[in-house]
Design goal:
This protein is of the alpha/beta class. The protein is 32% helix and 21% strand. The chain has a single domain, classed as Rossmann fold (3-Layer(aba) Sandwich). It has a 3-stranded parallel beta sheet with strand order 1-2-5, sandwiched between helices. It starts with 6 loop residues before the first strand and ends in a 7-residue tail after the last strand.
Length: 112
């Protein structure tokens, strides 16, 4: 990518990358470190034409096993995998003059 002067690296994480919560003390620092590492890489590779971004998925992903865990949750509680993919595709194909780094996705029914 450096030789070509273009490319995209996108890392994904969750809300723990931005804030710690009770009962997540062992997990949150790892996600925060992942985000900070991606930011450092973005600052190094951006000037070389490589777009690096971090996508925070602040949601329960709509999968068969997550539906079983939350059988009473309304559809608005879940984020669709295809919607996540669409947003990541959008970030990966942004105009160079307006690259995003930190992007958050969540379902509209999410209380945040």
């Amino acid at each position: 990518m450096i030789e070509a002067g273009k490319g995209v690296v996108i890392a994904s994480g969750n809300t723990s990358a931005l804030r710690g919560k009770a009962n997540f003390a062992g997990f949150a620092p790892t996600k925060a470190a992942q985000r900070v590492l991606a930011e450092a890489i973005a600052r190094e590779l951006g000037p070389k034409g490589i777009h690096v971004a971090y996508v925070v998925i602040d949601a329960v992903i709509d999968l068969a096993w997550t539906r079983k865990m939350r059988p009473d949750a309304p559809d608005e509680y879940f984020i669709k995998p295809a919607a996540i993919a669409d947003e990541i595709w959008h970030v990966a194909h942004q105009e160079r003059s307006a690259w995003s780094f930190n992007v958050e996705v969540r379902p509209f029914g999410e209380t945040w």
